[in-house]
Amino acid sequence: MSAVIRASGLVKHYGEVRALDGLDLSVERGQVLGLLGPNGAGKTTSVRILATLLDADAGDAEVAGYDVRTQTDEVRRVIGLSGQYAAVDEHLTGFENLDMVGRLYRLGRARARVRARELLERFDLAAAGDRPVKTYSGGMRRRLDLAGSLVADPQVLFLDEPTTGLDPRSRTGMWEVIRELVDRGTTLLLTTQYLEEADRLADEIIVIDHGREIARGSADQLKAQVGGERVELVVAQRTDLLTARSLLAEFAVGEITVDEHGNGLGAPVAGGAGVLMQVLRRLDDADIEVLDIALRRPTLDDVFLALTGHVAEPDAAPRKGEGDEGDRLRPDLAAVAVAHEEELA
Amino acid sequence: MTTLSIAVADGAVVAKRNLIKIKRVPDVLVWVLMSPIMFVLLFAYVFGGAIDPGGGVNYREFLMAGIFAQTAIFGATFTGAGMAEDMQKGIIDRFRSLPMSRSAVLVGRTASDIVYNVLSLAIMSLTGLLIGWRIRGSLGDALLAFLLLVLLGYAFSWVLGYVGLLVPSPEVINNASFMVIMPLTFVSNAFVPLESFPAALRPFVEWNPVSAVTQAARDLFGNTSPAIPVPDVWSMRNPILYTLIWIVAIIAVFLPLAVAQYQRTASR
Fold it and tell me: What sign results for the dihedral spanned by CA atoms B161, B163, B167, B171?
């Protein structure tokens, strides 16, 4: 077994709430595991236990062969952790933050300084490096936090919702950085609320809900269960509905749904934006006026609907707004698609 | 490296971080330095006319050691507030995920707060000198007095540092410390002569560490007179030794308590 991260039967209670209810996972060297779930599913709890910040009530876990409960120092020497709430000191400059972390890893004064400058350069923070973090944008803070977790070149990295709350541009930037790390052979455990993020970054995905695994597999396997992407459109004239339907049938890989009341059509497709373009072209050739058209990718809600029959609902206080915002910020979803979804709803 | 030298090295890194914050957020420092000046002036001029320490000693001379003691102990509030604030900030997760000493955050915090204390003692001394306070003993004795004051303040930093880990937010600290430190400093010989307390309170006043450090500082600064009687109680007859015992005892109890609590709070 070459599992670098291994956990079995992890249980954690917070009073009455079971944050984790017997989670098992393992990640091989150089692989990326995505923990996908809504708020309150137990993602952060899992990461905190594996990163030695939290003791599990039951179960055991190892990172790089060290027990996370009894060999905390050994574990801490080989891991990097970057969370949803940037673990940086806002009164210090970016440089001072990284230099401090380097000193605490006992790199030595000179090495810590060099490493701090290197990381600032690499994360596009060199120009802001001598400004207090207070003046940084959310995306910059996250990058600095990620840089902080990489100071000692860890072989295992934990990223807890690395892009939650970031704007689309920062999010894609973050993905590039993470991808690069993984390409260099870092073993990564990533938590996310976005199927798309897990899809882009993870080799294997575990979907969790109420502290339990409800599905596991590659992104493709999960999408196959969920039904993949759909083209959804609304035509201007009801009389065009049947023609549009037959055009759409050429691209559909499953059943086409018709909403006669709203002049809407929907069909599962394969091939992404290219298909959307072709559908549009065919509709245009046929002189069919389209009010609205969008490519809709499966969201976490779709995954949950398909897997559990209910949509993802946070356990704790309602933080639905956050999730909504997240979906709206997905870079590949045009505003028109959101408008369309709302119209359908 | 030994556990101790790791704790000191890592503590120094954390202390440096705290000191940078003093530089970046100077408003806190202004407050730290203004309040002792205010205390000196208030006490000197409000009570100065009403209280006669006896033995021909000027009240302002009598007062200074007491004000020093009160300020040194109140300084510990910053440690409590600082710890409580740190525990709320994201940076604590970074500290906790690093292979650093478990006591470093506390060691660093208590160490950097010594700087606050030394600065406010310096400002108060200058204010005192302006209103007529004089060091009448030797320079060595005066330095020993300041050292005792700073050490006792440091010991109390560990108490408040521990409390700071227990409270849910930094705001609570100010009230909590007020409730404890006010009675402790006022029911002592810091501002009024010991003899003025009712008999029932006397034993508390006599064995209060604040009284001891005040008495020690007064003796060392030469701000007493042979005409003022020293109660025939061991603590008041041996105030330096008694203060040192308190310093050692407080640290011996609260350092392990605070470190253990840090670990516990850390793994919640």
Answer: negative
